[in-house]
Amino acid sequence: MTELRADARRNLERVLDAATEAFAASGPDASIDDIARLAGVGHGTVFRRFPTKDDLMFAVIERHVDEMCTLAREALAAADPGQAFFDFVWRLAELNMSTPGLHRCVVHCGDKPGAAELEKLADRVVSRAQRAGAVRRDVKAEDVRLLVRSALTNTPPGQWRRYLAVVLDGLRA
Amino acid sequence: MTELRADARRNLERVLDAATEAFAASGPDASIDDIARLAGVGHGTVFRRFPTKDDLMFAVIERHVDEMCTLAREALAAADPGQAFFDFVWRLAELNMSTPGLHRCVVHCGDKPGAAELEKLADRVVSRAQRAGAVRRDVKAEDVRLLVRSALTNTPPGQWRRYLAVVLDGLRA
DNA sequence: CCTGAAACGGACTGATGAGTCCGCTTACTT
DNA sequence: AAGTAAGCGGACTCATCAGTCCGTTTCAGG
After folding, report:
1. Is residue A40's pLDDT more than 70?
2. Under DSSP, is residue B112 helix (H, G, I), strand (E, B) or coil?
3. Which site among B107, B144, B147, B155 would you substitute to test the A interface, given the most A Cβ atoms closer than 10 Å to its Cβ?
4. Strand partners, A135
């Protein structure tokens, strides 16, 4: 029942590879038709495995999201909450901005279960740093998330580090 | 030749009013059909006056852009370059965020002649503040523009003041 | 092999939205 | 009042894209 036929498994891999490439290049605007063409399959084949485009997108970024959750858990376990927060943000940014298109997909899928988990973890990292006095108290954890995101999104390629530095300086207590 | 017939003039006004309302509500995503319906005219009438949607959008924001240019010129004339910069940014933000939809239209039309003029003026305000030592030197004038924009765009309604405060704090020398 | 179920893929639908066209209407002019 | 050019508006084209359907192909087990 859960076993896929050999050709189905092969096509599934091709689709995921193609989708990763297309979403990395064009963000959530990549079309299913493009992805199917890139994978060398009909687009009906894509829809059989992933009932909606969002399902496919989430399958592509799931690995990314998991990785980010791990970073968040490490930050929560670290000794110095302030340092952990700043390190966490930089690592998160490096991971996301290595493929800006996928980052935009992560933003697009913000309400999916896995992504919601990540948000909860990230908010705890922020709160901990605030309690330790490393981050100003007049912003909410959610605000920090949005500020960092806005510094990374719609930013000229290769310039985001400078932008993030400014925002993080603005966030220090 | 340049005189419009009475009905044409009346419809032109209606279209501009409707477009302002629609763009303010939905940003650049407002459709010409919606605008025409709101104005009570056929959409052919809209296209006769404004060959493309962008032309219409720019006509709507032109007044805004002019007002912003005035603010920039005032800032350039002010005595204290640093204070002038921060006042300028806050006034610009208040003006834009009173109608977030129109702000998104301004961003969308960033390359139109009038908007380009505004960018040049704004960049001079920034450079002047940097030379006066009020703004950190490791960012370019364009970076400041983009950072401020990113703090205002895609931001929960009513929260943008906090976000802007953080970014401006991060920009101080 | 040979057969049936799984998988395939592309034609099709339906929605949306920009921009064109042209037969009809209406406002000015004389 | 009548002629005419300006103006009108909606039907039409064209393109895009998500998602459906079904006749055909291909895999895998007996």
Report:
1. yes
2. coil
3. B147
4. A172
How far apart are alpha carbons B40 and B21 in whole angstroms?
13
As given in the structure block, the two tokens for residue B136 are 């950190």
Contacts of B165 in chain A (CB under 8 A): 170
Contact B73, B121 (CB under 8 A): yes
Half-sphere CA count of B91, side-chain side, radius 13 A:
17
Chain B contact for A147, CB < 8 A?
yes
Q: How far is CA A122 from the centre of its chain?
A: 12
Sequence-distant (≥ 6) Cβ neighbours of residue B142 within 8 angstroms: B123
CB B113 within 8 A of CB B161: no
Ordered DSSP codes for A120-167:
HHHHHHHHHHHHTTSB-TTS-HHHHHHHHHHHHTT--TT-HHHHHHHH
- pLDDT for residue A135: 97
Phi, psi torsion values for A140, nearest 5 degrees: -90, 160
Q: What are the two backbone dihedrals, phi and then psi, of residue B172, each rounded to the nearest 5 degrees?
A: -65, 150
User: Quick one: pLDDT at residue A98?
Assistant: 94
CB pairs under 8 A between A and B: 64
- The whole-angstrom distance between residue B63's C-alpha and the CA centroid of its chain comes to 9
> Measuring CA to CA, which residue among B140, B121, B134 is closest to residue B82?
B134
> What's the pLDDT tens digit per position in A65-112?
999 999 999 999 999 999 999 999 999 999 999 999 999 999 999 878
Q: What's the pTM value of the predicted model, to 2 decimals?
A: 0.90
d(CA B39, CA A59): 44
